[in-house]
């Protein structure tokens, strides 16, 4: 008779570790020019991020955890273009 500890790579903790690693890679903060702009995000997603610390995704696709005053930066041209196309 085998136990879950006999084959750790087939489930249990190993599976949880792989799933956690996938989630962490998915939430990687993107560096680059996106940092120089304010981005458009759904209001409810910003509130959720403030409460949970989860990253948000802007209309341009940038994924990050908000934490700075957006009034201090120009609006992302890609976000603005997508927003205007939705009207």
Please describe what this structure looks like.
This protein has 87 residues and is mainly alpha-helical. 7% of the residues are buried. A two-stranded antiparallel sheet has the order 1-2. It has helices at residues 13-26, 43-52, 77-86, and strands spanning 56-57, 63-64. A hairpin with a 5-residue loop joins β1 and β2 (63-64). Helix content is 39%, strand content 5%.
Beta-strand percent range: under 5%
Rounded to the nearest angstrom, the distance between the terminal CA atoms is 63 Å
Oligomer: single chain
Q: DSSP helix count?
A: 3
What is the gyration radius calculated from CA atoms?
19 Å
Strands of the widest sheet, in order across it, are 1-2
Structural class of the secondary structure composition? mainly alpha
Features:
87 residues, single chain, elongated, 3 helices, two-stranded antiparallel sheet, mainly alpha
How are the SSEs ordered, and which strands pair?
Blueprint: H1 13-26, H2 43-52, E1 56-57, E2 63-64, H3 77-86
Antiparallel strand pairs: 1-2
Short overview:
It contains three helices and two strands; from the N terminus they run ααββα. It has 87 residues and is mainly α.
């Amino acid at each position: 008779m085998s136990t879950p500890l006999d084959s750790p790579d087939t489930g249990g903790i190993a599976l949880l570790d792989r799933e956690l690693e996938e989630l962490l890679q998915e939430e990687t903060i993107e560096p680059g020019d996106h940092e120089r702009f304010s981005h458009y995000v759904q209001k409810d997603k910003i509130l959720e991020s403030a409460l949970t610390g989860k990253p948000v995704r802007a209309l341009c696709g940038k994924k990050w955890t908000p934490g700075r005053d957006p009034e201090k930066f120009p609006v992302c041209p890609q976000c603005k273009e997508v927003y205007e196309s939705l009207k």
